[in-house]
Specification:
This protein is α/β, with parallel strands linked by helices. It has three domains: 34 residues, no CATH class; 140 residues, Leucine Dehydrogenase, chain A, domain 1 (Rossmann fold), CATH 3.40.50; 155 residues, NAD(P)-binding Rossmann-like Domain (Rossmann fold, 3-Layer(aba) Sandwich). The protein is 47% helix and 16% strand. It contains 16 helices and twelve strands. The strands form two sheets. The chain has a seven-stranded mixed β-sheet with strand order 9-8-7-6-10-11-12, sandwiched between helices. Strands 1-2-4-3-5 form a five-stranded mixed β-sheet. Helix 5 links the parallel strand 3 and strand 4. The longest helix is centred in the last third of the chain and has 26 residues. The termini are far apart.
């Protein structure tokens, strides 16, 4: 049943299809299974293929960019508090160091795998290149549920992981940072472990550290602040009054929580937010400060009690009617199965890779503007670069300078992307990739292939 390339992908997600409901249900079931198992690195490579065709990229350069420079898989054994040994698997990937040292976060999550880390490292390369930062792309992670570990177990895990990857990280090689389920305390443990092994304090080995040991002001809110600057620039171009927009935020961690708070403080109405447990919705607008306080007590949104708020699941939050949708959770959230149901004007990608290439086509056909991850959420790596500079020179900036430098870099990048998208009649994503990849291609051409 089905086929003929799944009945031409059900007439491109069934506009006025004559195919039976049973066949549609079979198709959706199969696609959901494929999406849940989708290899994110294959998705990252597919994005390169799409852009390479658009810009007539040299095949040798394309091959170069579709591979990673280095992938390290490490065993991370720790003794639990009860004396039992548990062994976790960790990763560090460097996609490209052609333009400078690797840069990218470390995530602790139960679904982390090598191909996910490869994809994230690749996207970091594009971010750094798009912003003209003299850095490459890297990423790391451990396959672990950190909520099941005590603080002392988490520290032992972090220090052992650092020891395992110590030979491929450093201020001149690869500079980690926080990511999903990691924070400034984890970065402090990494810095200390690295420094103890090198015999001197080396704050520049990681960014996102506590301010007291070389961290930067503004780093914790950098990704959210960057999202705001890019969204503001887009609204100015489109003559949109940002304060009048109804906004939905999927994800309520560091990125989602911060952009929700910033937009709320600017007078915007946040009508829905969600975490791993589900979401809360009200047309009148949520009390974001109250919900952030609830989140900071390690409580889930599903347990928040307010008779004026409606609880909704994580799938439904993406299809709520709104003006601006901000997916700030994980990759592969907007797919060919739900893209046609998306009911907004603008998607601002707070997460990495939240929209699949197939969904991009549907969204573009429906007139929805997608501000891509490598531009929208690049504020984090930008301020990480500022922290790196401050550590090297042992001279630290005021918050006003951080935010002004951040705004300048992001708005300039947005202007370049917006201009190219209009000139070439392509999406903002394609334009972003064209700029980022062209800079990488030029660097590869100039450096050549060793030997």
């Amino acid at each position: 049943m089905l086929d003929n390339k799944k009945k031409e992908q059900i007439k491109f997600i069934y506009p006025e299809t004559l195919i039976s409901q049973d066949e549609i249900e079979i198709y959706e079931k199969e696609e959901k299974e494929l999406i849940s198992e989708r290899n994110p690195f294959e998705m990252a490579k597919k994005q390169i293929d799409i852009v390479a065709k658009e810009m007539n990229l040299d095949d040798n350069i394309k091959k170069f960019l579709k591979s990673v420079e280095r992938s390290l898989i490490v065993s991370v054994p720790i003794k639990k508090d009860d004396g039992n040994l548990e062994i976790f698997e960790g990763y560090r990937v460097q996609h490209s160091t052609v333009r400078g040292p690797g840069k990218g976060g470390i995530r602790f999550a139960p679904n982390v795998n090598l191909d996910e880390v490869k994809a994230l490292a690749t996207w970091m390369t594009w971010k750094c290149s798009l912003l003209c930062l003299p850095l490459g792309g890297a990423k790391g992670g451990i396959c672990v549920d950190p909520r099941k570990l005590s603080k002392s177990e988490l520290e032992r895990l972090t220090r052992r992981y650092t020891a395992e990857i110590i030979n491929i990280i450093g201020p001149d090689m690869d500079i980690p940072a926080p990511d999903v389920n990691t924070d400034s305390q984890i970065m402090a443990w990494i810095m200390d472990t690295y420094s103890m092994n090198k015999g001197r304090a080396i704050p520049g080995v990681v960014t996102g550290k506590p301010i007291e040991i070389g961290g930067s002001v503004g780093r914790e809110t950098a990704t959210g602040m960057g999202l705001y600057f890019v969204l503001e620039a887009l609204c100015n171009k489109m003559n949109i009054d940002l304060e009048s927009q109804k906004i939905v935020v999927q994800g309520f961690g560091n990125v989602g929580g911060n952009i929700a708070k910033i937009l709320c403080e600017k007078g915007c109405k946040i009508i829905a937010v969600s975490d791993i447990s589900g979401g809360l919705f009200t047309k009148e607008g949520l009390d974001i400060i109250e919900l952030l306080d609830w989140r900071d007590k390690k409580k889930y949104l599903k347990d928040f009690q307010n008779e004026n708020y409606e609880f909704i699941n994580n799938e439904d939050i993406l299809t709520l009617e709104c003006d601006i949708l901000i997916p700030a959770a994980l990759e592969n959230q907007i797919t060919q199965l739900n893209a046609k149901k998306i009911n907004c004007k603008i998607i601002l990608e707070g997460a990495n890779g939240p929209t699949t290439p197939e969904a991009d086509i549907i969204l573009k056909n429906n007139g929805i503007i997608v501000v891509p991850d490598i531009l929208a959420n690049a504020g984090g790596v930008c301020v990480s670069y500022f922290e790196y500079i401050q550590d090297i020179h042992s001279y630290f900036w005021k918050l006003e300078r951080i935010n002004q430098e951040l705004k300048n870099i992001l708005v300039n990048a947005f202007e370049d992307v917006y201009y190219l998208s209009k000139e070439k009649n392509v999406s903002l994503r394609i334009a972003s990739y064209m700029i980022a990849i062209s800079r990488l291609a030029k660097a590869i051409e100039l450096r050549g292939i060793f030997p």
